[in-house]
Amino acid sequence: MLDWTTVDTVMLDMDGTLLDLHFDSYFWLEHLPRRYAELKNLEPLYAIDMLNERIMAQQGTLNWYCLDYWSQELGVDILALKREVQDKIGFRPQVKGFLQALRSAGIRTLIVTNCHPAAVTLKMQQTNLDALVDEVIISHSLGKPKEEPSFWVDLQEIEPFNPARTLFIDDSLPVLRSAQRFGIAHLLCIAQPDSQAPAREQQEFPSLHHFQDLLKI
């Protein structure tokens, strides 16, 4: 599936790629609307519709991922609400073995995530994922999400890499398109980012169903 002699660097999304997206899906689609309705004394269905409209309006921007932004906009402590369901944070299958194989092969591994720094800290506390990679780069530190083409230019300045010898794995089509426009040669799309949802069908990028499919390093 991949000629590893052509790869020096592996960049990995976090949520939906290394970690099960179910935590985030459950939080934003179920837990937050329920708790927001309770805290604001709203009808649950009204809270769901209102939150969905406001959140979708920020899709593709850094605000979409920013806990500080949503805490201020909604008047609730988003991080505290995330902690209420932090037991749902967990790895996707075969992640640890894959990352250990990359390390043994001497391939540099980077997590490149749009996740807010406070949420990254929460997830690392639950999983110790950061100990399995060489570096964790958070888009908030660059002031723009991975969806923006200039993100990759800025990333290359702080983390030099050769796009022609880089593998990037993500579950987001807009992010993968952005990386493709920048010139990253090897791109894979996670087929089932949320363990509680069916695998997605897309033909734009090669789909990765199981990390073991890549383990001939």
TrEMBL record:
GO MF: 5'-nucleotidase activity
Keyword Oxidoreductase: no
InterPro entries: HAD-like_hydrolase_sf, HAD-like_sf, HAD-SF_hydro_IA, HAD_sf
Keywords attached to this entry: Hydrolase
Enzyme Commission number(s) from the entry: 3.1.3.5
Short name of any one Pfam family annotated for the protein: Hydrolase
Enzyme kind, highest EC tier: hydrolase
SUPFAM superfamilies: HAD-like
PANTHER family, A to Z: GMP_IMP NUCLEOTIDASE YRFG, PHOSPHOGLYCOLATE PHOSPHATASE
Protein name (record): GMP/IMP nucleotidase
Species annotation: Balneatrix alpica
